[in-house]
Specification:
alpha+beta
Length: 150
């Protein structure tokens, strides 16, 4: 998929170091960190067709400027799978140029091609920049997320 001078394609076309740079900036944005072993496992899972995790990148020329990771999973509420858009990050230098929207639209197409019944994601309540985009391309639910880390 091409969006102006941005090319969107599977993350397998990316170099590990380019992906890792954006992935680490994404983690900093969410004020968290992961071990190098976890990051390497994530990268390997993105490349492994036997794992239901896929990734897409946005390139401006040869520069990776955006990434998204999705997980396809079954659900008890439908006979078809769901697509969880787990991660989305666009480099600060190119925000506001439609790259986030293009990545999400590619995820929609990817999920439709796999006969998913929906794409869903979460974000922090205070992430107003992203939420302004999300409000134009999806419907906010009234669900509240609870979590217990194990």
């Amino acid at each position: 998929m091409t969006n102006g001078n941005i090319k969107i394609a599977a993350i397998s076309n990316a170099r590990y170091d380019d992906w890792l740079d954006l992935w680490q900036r994404y983690l900093v944005f969410y004020e968290t960190s992961l071990s190098i072993a976890t990051m390497e496992t994530t990268w390997q899972n993105l490349l492994n067709s036997d794992v239901p995790i896929d990734g897409f990148g946005a390139w401006q020329g040869d520069t990776l400027v955006g990434i998204t990771h999705v997980v396809i999973h079954p659900t008890t509420w439908n006979s078809t799978a769901c697509c969880y858009l787990q991660d989305l990050y666009v480099s600060e230098s190119v925000r506001g140029q439609g790259i986030g929207r293009a990545l999400i639209e590619l995820v929609y197409e990817f999920a439709r091609n796999r006969h998913c019944n929906r794409v869903y994601w979460t974000t922090q309540e205070g992430n107003t920049t992203a939420r302004n985009l999300y409000d134009t391309i999806a419907t906010q639910t009234d669900m509240v997320q609870y979590r217990k880390n194990l």
